[in-house]
Design goal:
This protein is α/β, with parallel strands linked by helices. The chain has five helices and 40 strands.
Length: 359
């Protein structure tokens, strides 16, 4: 028997009843149905666990080879299903929980210090850490418990990294930056590079403004690959707790990203802008500096935001406008050829009526 709380062991075998305990679900079908790996519902084979959250994939529920499938409580099954079903309030969240448990066990197997690596004499680290080959930990670095630092990572002087963090290969964290607990930073990302500060001079040249602040990343933040978060000129660039940043994002100096805000790939935020909590920012969005984005605002993909956005407001376009008004404008724009035709017909009718009146 497997111990509840562990979904993957060396044998990779677990049963529907045990999975149901982990996700607070209810089994329909054979509670002893066993699985050893995960699979997409359209491709899964016997012995695999899958899930169905999007109704567009419902047809695969009746044809998949998966042995166990997680589904929503309110889903109506219209045909016989060969797999054991586990009903939960939210299938997507439940499946994410299981994948998280799997990842925890994989990461738990990583511990110790690989060589060659460099750890300064004044650096310190907690229990059960992993430091990969060719990693660099500078003077005064502090690493918490159960944190994993993968090969070729650079951790600059006096950086603090909390507990249960994952710093992937090739990450660079510059001096004095602070990383909270349960933070994931993906490969190639740079934390704490200089902000883009240059003072124009009378002769047309630019004098660099030293960037002496840092970056503070709070708890439960995830930052994608090849992102850049610049250090503050003075003070801190702040990524608040629970924020999720996609790949290829630029966050400039002294920006504040609010808690539980999500930013999609290839977006950029200019210096000193304050983004509230629970904001949703689509891909390839550009935001100018020194403005405020209110709590719960939504910014559509490829928008150019040139002024502050009120809390709860949705905007789109470049420059960004109210989302609903923009959709109405787009609908009218599509009808312009028809409207032009009708106007010409009305003009012809007016001319005809005027001619009859004169006659």
């Amino acid at each position: 028997m497997l111990t509840p709380g562990y979904i993957i062991q060396d044998t990779m075998e677990f049963q529907a009843a045990q999975i149901a305990i982990l996700v607070n679900g209810k089994v329909e079908g054979d509670p002893a149905a066993s699985v050893h790996s995960f699979g997409k519902i359209e491709e899964a084979s016997a012995g695999q666990l899958s899930f169905l959250a999007n109704p567009k994939y419902e047809d695969y529920l009746y044809t998949t080879g998966a042995s166990v499938i997680i589904i929503n409580n309110d889903m109506v099954v219209k045909k016989p299903v060969s797999a054991a079903l586990i009903r939960v309030p939210d299938a997507y969240t439940a499946f994410a929980t299981l994948l998280g448990k799997y990842q925890e066990i994989v990461n738990r197997q990583l511990h110790g210090i690989q060589q060659p690596s460099y750890i300064a004499a004044t650096a310190s680290y907690g229990d059960n850490v992993f430091i990969g080959a060719f990693a660099y930990l500078g003077e005064g670095v502090k690493i918490g418990h159960n944190t994993k630092i993968f090969p070729n990572a650079y951790i600059g002087d006096h950086v603090t990294i909390g507990d249960h963090c994952i710093i992937h290969a090739g990450v660079r964290i510059y001096h004095d930056c602070v990383i909270g607990n349960h933070v994931v930073i993906h490969a190639g990302t740079v934390i704490g590079s200089d902000g883009f500060g240059f003072a124009p001079q009378a002769d047309g040249s630019f004098k660099k403004v030293p960037q002496i602040g840092n970056v503070v990343v709070e708890d439960h933040v995830e930052i994608g690959a090849n992102a850049a978060i610049d250090r503050a000129t003075i003070g801190s660039t702040l990524i608040r707790s629970g924020a999720k940043l996609d790949n290829l994002i630029q966050i400039a100096h002294n920006v504040e990203v609010g808690s539980s805000t999500v930013i999609a790939a290839q977006s950029g935020v200019s210096g000193s802008t304050k983004i509230g909590k629970g904001v949703m920012i689509g891909g390839q969005v550009g935001i100018v500096g020194h403005i405020q984005i209110g709590d719960g605002a939504k910014i559509n993909a490829q928008s150019g935001v040139s002024k502050s956005v009120e809390a709860g407001k949705a905007v789109t376009g470049s420059p960004a406008h109210d989302y609903t008004s923009t959709l109405r404008s787009q609908a009218i724009t599509r009808k312009l050829p028809e409207l032009e035709k009708r106007i010409k017909e009305l003009e012809a009718l007016v001319r005809l009526l005027a001619k009859e009146k004169v006659g």
